[in-house]
């Protein structure tokens, strides 16, 4: 049995809203799922199967982060990855407050992992556990050729280019080709919105959000660092680095898996989440 997804626009400050997908019962342990940064990405395209599968035991909350999907967007757009992150994270805090959440488990994919670490820095009282999945955040990380395809997507924003980009997110391209094509088609109407391109171009500059060893040593929260061994978007060395310096981190590497752990190894990823989170008690 899978849990039905409830979708609504949740009002935050300044007349803005976040599009939020939820499963499970409010009052159950809250899992806040933060998606990655790909062009046209939405919370649903990243997390649909996961939150359907985990809604029996947890209150799953998967928002389109500010500036993505069907959420409001900043106007004017902050310039640079760090500036964008600060505005978007503040909007996430407003969402948490609007939903009346006192504690959350953060589940962050790629960019969402970086945002999870920053949230834990700013409001450690809010965060009971962290799950990082293919997360960035290592200082001096050089972009892979596949990540450069993501960054420069809007130089050639076609359906074909989208499919060519997204197929790099999985290891088993034969098994998941149809899934990737479906996700690509789902993203194209969003990609064509001018503010989506504007936000994407504004985000990727020379300055990235990163965390030095001293920064990470202060995030004293139980953390599970998950990475696909064959991830060509974010190198596995980044997760080795995070696991080494986060004081309560465990590292879980999944073989025969690329960047989309939650899609390519959906059942396994959900089981790992259940094992790590348990019943949500401290």
TrEMBL record:
Highest taxon above the source species: Bacteria
Key words of the record: Hydrolase
GO cellular component, one term: membrane
Ranges of residues in domain AB hydrolase-1: 31-269
Family matches, as Pfam families: Abhydrolase_6 (PF12697)
A GO molecular-function annotation: hydrolase activity
Signal peptide: none
Xref: InterPro entries: AB_hydrolase_1, AB_hydrolase_fold, AB_hydrolase_sf, Epox_hydrolase-like
Name of the featured protein: Alpha/beta hydrolase fold protein
Species annotation: Actinomadura verrucosospora
């Amino acid at each position: 049995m899978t849990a039905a997804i409830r979708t609504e626009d949740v009002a935050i400050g300044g007349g803005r809203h976040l599009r939020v997908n939820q499963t499970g019962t409010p009052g159950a342990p809250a899992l806040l799922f933060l998606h990655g940064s790909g062009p046209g990405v939405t919370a649903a395209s990243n997390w649909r199967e996961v939150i359907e599968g985990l809604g029996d035991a947890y209150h799953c909350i998967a928002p389109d982060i500010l500036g993505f999907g069907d959420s409001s967007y900043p106007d004017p757009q902050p310039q640079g990855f760090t500036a964008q992150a600060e505005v978007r994270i503040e909007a996430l805090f407003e969402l948490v407050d609007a939903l009346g959440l006192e504690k959350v488990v953060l589940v962050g994919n790629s960019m969402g992992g970086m945002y999870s670490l920053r949230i834990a820095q700013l409001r450690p009282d809010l965060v009971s556990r962290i799950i990082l999945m293919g997360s960035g955040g290592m200082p001096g990380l050089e972009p892979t050729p596949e990540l450069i395809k993501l960054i420069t997507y809007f130089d050639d924003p076609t359906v074909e280019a989208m499919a060519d980009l997204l197929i790099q997110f999985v290891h088993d391209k034969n098994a998941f080709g149809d899934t990737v094509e479906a996700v690509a088609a789902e993203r194209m109407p969003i990609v064509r919105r001018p503010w989506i391109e504007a936000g994407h171009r504004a985000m990727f500059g020379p300055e990235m959000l990163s965390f030095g060893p001293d920064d990470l040593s202060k995030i004293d929260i139980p953390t599970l660092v998950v990475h696909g061994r064959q991830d060509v978007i974010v190198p596995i060395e980044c997760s080795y680095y995070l696991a080494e310096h986060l004081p309560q981190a465990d590292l879980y590497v999944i073989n025969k898996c690329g960047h989309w752990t939650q899609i390519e190894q959906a059942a396994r990823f959900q089981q790992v989440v259940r094992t790590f989170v348990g019943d949500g008690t401290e």
